[in-house]
Amino acid sequence: MIRIFTMVLALLCLPLSAHAQELQSLLQEHQKTIAKPSRKTVGPVLEALVASGLPTVPQFLESWQGKEVYSRKEDGLFFYTKKTSDGLALIDVDTGATVTTVDTKAAKQIKPNGGVRKEIASALVQFQLSDPDLTRRTDAVTAIARNMSGSMLAPLLGSIEGEPDTELKARKEQLANYLSARFSEDADQRIAAIQNISSVLSVEGRAVLAQILETELEVTEGATERNLDAALVIGEDLTRSEAYALLVEQKGLPELVSENDLRLALEANVDGGKVGGIPVAQLDDLNKRAEAYDTLAESGAVPARVTAAMIDEALAKYQFNRVFVEADRVVTAAASKAQSSVQTRVGVNQFFDLSLDAISLASIYFLAAVGLAITFGVMGVINMAHGEFIMMGAYTGYVVQQFVPNYTASLIVALPLAFIVTFAAGVAMERLVIRWLYNRPLETLLATFGISIALQQLAKNIFGTQARPLTSPGWLDGAWIINDVVQISYIRIAIFVLALLFLALLLFILKKTRLGLEVRAVTQNPRMAASMGINPDKIKMMTFGLGSGIAGIAGVAIGLFAKVTSEMGSDYIVQSFMTVVVGGVGNVWGTLAGAAMIGTFQKGVEWLNPSNTLAAQTYLILFIILFIQFRPKGIIALKGRAAGD
Fold this sequence. Notes:
Layout: H1 2-20, H2 22-29, H3 31-35, H4 42-52, H5 57-65, E1 69-72, E2 78-84, E3 87-92, E4 98-102, E5 107-109, H6 114-128, H7 134-146, H8 153-160, H9 166-183, H10 187-197, H11 203-212, E6 215-220, E7 228-231, H12 240-251, H13 259-268, E8 274-275, E9 278-279, H14 286-298, H15 308-317, E10 319-324, H16 329-379, H17 386-403, H18 407-432, H19 441-463, E11 479-481, E12 487-489, H20 490-512, H21 514-524, H22 526-531, H23 536-559, H24 570-583, H25 588-608, H26 613-630
Antiparallel strand pairs: 1-2, 1-5, 2-3, 3-4, 6-10, 7-10, 8-9, 11-12
């Protein structure tokens, strides 16, 4: 009975033992290539391993890629290893069991180079697509996206149905569509995939269409048999020299002899003060040089020179075409139609994206300029230190963050505190300096310019010359991505919302409060307002403080995405004045219109000439000069008595 049991057990173990040796046996068939792999020879090995379907192949590929495979010198068998106090423990590649322990010199580490490891990674992706670990599956899909190849299509399609993660499944389907468009053997499937690409705006999809529509130049004696894109006309599509260079490359025609080659050939064949029978002294003449060279060519000393007549004859003989690399004409026609559709939609979305950028920039300019619009409109003061109030607000936000580490809480504290600080600074400036210089614009300009320099130097003394960070809260990180073309950062959206809130708040103050009524009265007619019991000096002080406080809040908002330095106000003072002047002095709606016009114009110029941002500033100033010539009082001019001041 025991004997029978033993025999049955042995029979049951036979297939297991045979299976346990399958991977090692397969590896031994390619022993030399695996031991010394190269990028050119490793392909057949990887194909054999993948085709085997052995469950131990993925682990071997990972170990091979990670340089964790060793070959025993005495018999060439491959093992995984583990260092022990006695040497190296050799682990069977099939069973995972430790076979024996050997001296470190008895086994050689297999070290594939970078190219081989890249090929192994491509093969390994096929197994990782269905790995239980979501991270590994995601990494595999990312690897396919980085290096799309036709061999990945079948494994990718096979892994889609069983993918449990919804987001990753959608990504797999997207990549499978791209791969089908390029590599599927079924033309109908390719066309269907191309049509799907035409409905999206992804950069990957556009790249796939561009790869399908890749072209090359071809020279033929008659009509081409390949997928023709266009027949090229010499003089329009190709120059004579470019066309002949193609003939040299593709048809083996003799190369043109350059002036330098001709000169070197003549120098090498000087004999008795002559070259080709022509004295060296006469070789300053280009015609003599050509004659001497042709004489040398007749004697076989140098290659014959290609003449203009020979070039004309060659160009007349051949047809120059631009042909698709893709052979299927139906596929390229579908891809061309899809690409045209995508380009149209990309253009529309680029315009939308540019509009969002312009609105974002306009909101920044509005925040920076609205305080100046109030003080300039009511008081007629050209405040060159307005930019420094923006800088003070930004530094206030920075100081608050040193004491309040929570960025959301610090922002909530910084906004009102910046208003208070800059409001107080504005009131102090008005009481100490500005009040003595009313109706003296030149002296006011010089005084505020001096204050601007003094405030900058004070900021340098306190905070140093290095830029200080004003960190935005985590919920403002990143961007709102509408599609692959249109996106806008959350900080810009927040600034836009803040600009709208300030617009509503200022309109409420000016239209619905007593202070606003008195401000409008002083703006329209200071003397009449004074006769009605309004104190113009007090209103001017409050107005200057309000404008300065708004600049401080603008500084906090601007500091969230711009550098916070002592000179940051200088970056916005010019745009602020331009916004106020273009929009209409002393008018909130005018400031909004001016900011929108300047932001749109600047972004438009930057889009037309993205490599030169200085050009945008130059053209902007020229545009404003011309605009003021036709509308000197701005887009929305004041009405009433103040309009004539």
